[in-house]
Amino acid sequence: MLSYRHAYHAGNHADVLKHSILSLILSYLGLKKNPYTFFDTHAGQGRYRLDRTPEEDKGDSFSGIRKVLESANYPAQLNPYITLCKNLAEKLFIYPGSPEVARNLSRPDDTLILMELHPSETPVLRANFRNDKRIHIHHRDGFSGLAALTPPQTVRGIAHIDPSYETADDWVQAAETLVSVHKKWPQGILALWYPVVGRKLHELNTLKQSLASSRIPGILDAELLVTDVQSGPDGYGLSGSGMIIVNPPWTLHDDIAGFLPWLASVLGENGAGHWNLPWLSEPV
Ligand code: SAM
Q1: Does any ligand 1 atom lie closer than 6 A to the CB of residue 42?
Q2: Gap from CA of 40 to ligand 1 centroid (Å)
Q3: Is the CB of 4 under 6 A from ligand 1?
Q4: 218 in Cβ contact with 279 (< 8 Å)
Q5: Does residue 202 fall inside a structural domain?
């Protein structure tokens, strides 16, 4: 049974990392004239209120996007993401989930395919994104949905894979999906988000090792840690998160390197913020 609800965490440090990278990738895709397809395998509600009660918010947006929006002199690479967040916060008092990021940064000929399995989240997603002919919403499992719907007709595109990691199976399926979808759609950009949680380090290391030995070249791993990683019985909190990117656009590594130190200093708790940006497999 699915119990994770993203509304409780929207705008946290993990969203800031994932949506800033997603915004950059969508900006690159928008530079070429040909249309592209955006897949979101785990879409959530698509957009979230910023005026949630403390019980609803749990302080997550206060240690994430709100800190970023209050900070001056952000690096230029964050411009697409921060401009979007500022506009939506000021005009509508909402935070953009990944579907809303894609809706705003895509063009009239692009296609957006959003998948969501939770029976309560899907109707909210549909209500939030009705009346846009570019957007197709599927109430289905995102892993098998992506396998079924790729390669897209546009050939160019990105799959954003953002599981809730509620089950042990999510870790295994995430790695298997990247490898199998890359085989079917070698041109596609695949961006997988993962959490860094002390008691799940074994699963995370296994995921990274299986991708490193997958023979897919040039897999980038962008990680942002906001606290020291606690192990053992204390290791329940979300210490940080990362995005694994297959087929990153060629300037993405340097662009991410341009903003990760700033994010680590703004979002790190008690000076504990740090970041890593290795290649899991070398580019050819
Ligand atoms: N991608 C969203 C964003 O960035 O705004 C957040 C998604 S949230 C981390 C994960 C979502 O996946 C939840 O809404 C959950 O209901 C949904 N979910 C869980 N298992 C799923 C599955 N097998 N297929 C599709 N959606 C699933």
Answers
A1: yes
A2: 9
A3: yes
A4: yes
A5: yes
CATH number at 237 reads 3.40.50.150
**From CA 200, how far away is CA 203, in angstroms rounded?**
5
Closest protein CA for atom 5 of ligand 1: 97
| 108 domain-assigned | yes
Cα separation of 11 and 263, whole Å? 14
Q: What is the pLDDT along the chain (284 residues), one digit of tens a residue?
A: 788 888 889 999 999 999 999 999 999 999 999 999 999 999 999 999 988 776 676 778 888 999 999 998 999 999 999 999 999 999 999 999 999 999 999 999 999 999 999 999 999 999 999 999 999 999 999 999 999 999 999 999 999 999 999 888 999 999 999 999 999 999 999 999 999 999 999 999 999 999 999 999 999 999 999 998 876 666 778 999 999 999 999 999 999 999 999 999 999 998 889 999 999 999 98
Which residue range is the domain that position 79 belongs to? 6-281
* Reported pTM: 0.97
C-beta 138 within 6 A of ligand 1: no
Taking the centre of ligand 1 as the mean of its atom positions, its distance from the CA of residue 223, in whole angstroms, is 20
Q: Verify whether ligand 1 is closer than 6 Å to residue 100 (CB atom).
A: no
State how many domains the chain has: 1
Residue 99 inside a domain? The answer is yes
Residue 1 covered by a domain: no
Q: Distance from the CA of 44 to the center of ligand 1, in angstroms?
A: 5
Cα pseudo-dihedral 180, 137, 81, 27, rounded to 10: 60
Half-sphere exposure (Cβ direction) of 43: Cα atoms closer than 13 Å: 37
